[in-house]
Structures are given as structure tokens and as C-alpha cells.
Amino acid sequence: GYASLNGTSMATPHVAGAAALLLASQPQLTVDALKTLLLANVTKLAQWNGVVASGGRLDVQLLFLAALQAQLPGAFSKTTPASGATGQNPASVGLTWGASTNVSTYEYCVDTSNNNTCDTSWTSTASLSATLSGLTSSTTYYWQVRAVNAAGTTLANGGTWWRFTTVNR
What we know:
This protein is an alpha+beta fold. Helix content is 23%, strand content 29%. The N and C termini lie far apart (78 Å).
């Protein structure tokens, strides 16, 4: 059967369940970080202000959104080839970029369209570089790299696509 109950005996398993789900999705969270997230993501209720530590009711959706935001990939930059580089060997062009934080993998895209979107496909890699081969001579290519966190959220390097041109062979 079903019954309606309230009080700390009912609230405790709900908060513990939310904490367990959050830790399952982000096992790197410390106990202090978890506690801070739990207490900060509540719907405030005037009648509970000063009565319970949070001053309100846990909002699990806000909790997960806040945790996701807290774990966004950090800033990083592309290194080579420099934007506008010319004379690149179409047989072998090395792309390199700096490290980001909160990263599971990186994805890069190379295409010939100057429209700030990936018209080909994103290629995943765990390293800070990629080597391209078999490019077309005398062609301008545009490239971007983005960091991907454990939740699949991406952060592109400044949203700026760099370009390089291959030599005539």
C-alpha cells in the first residue's frame, strides 16, 4: 500500500539517494563539495528558515545542474599550427593544444568551410595532439578543438576556428 509521511525520517533517504546518484555520476566529488552542493541547491521555504540547515527542500534538478556547471572543462588554447599558417605539408600536419582541467577526452574537427561549425565530424582523442595526413595541396583548412568532461559537456577553445593552408605539391 501507499501512505503519506513526512519529517526527517522521510527526508533523509531522499537526500541520501540524491547524494548517491550525484556521486555515481561524479565520483571525484569530495565530501565537503557534496555537502556544499546539497545545502546550496534547495527551494527556500520561509517556514523552514532557521528550522533546518538548508532552509528549504532539496531540488535535485538544481543540484545536478550546479554540479555539472562546477565540473565544466577549463580554459585551454590551441598551439600549432598557428592561425593563418601557410606552407603546411599536406602529407603531415600536426595539430597541438594545451591541457584543460576536468577533461575526459578532447575532440577536434578539421574542414574546409569557413563557417565556425564542424561540417565533417568531431574526432575524439585522449592526447593533446593529432596528426593529419592526406590533405589536399593548396587548400585552406579550418580547425577547432574542444574539451569534453565526464558528463559529455564540451568547451571549445574560445569558439575561434583557426586556419592553415597547405603548400602546392
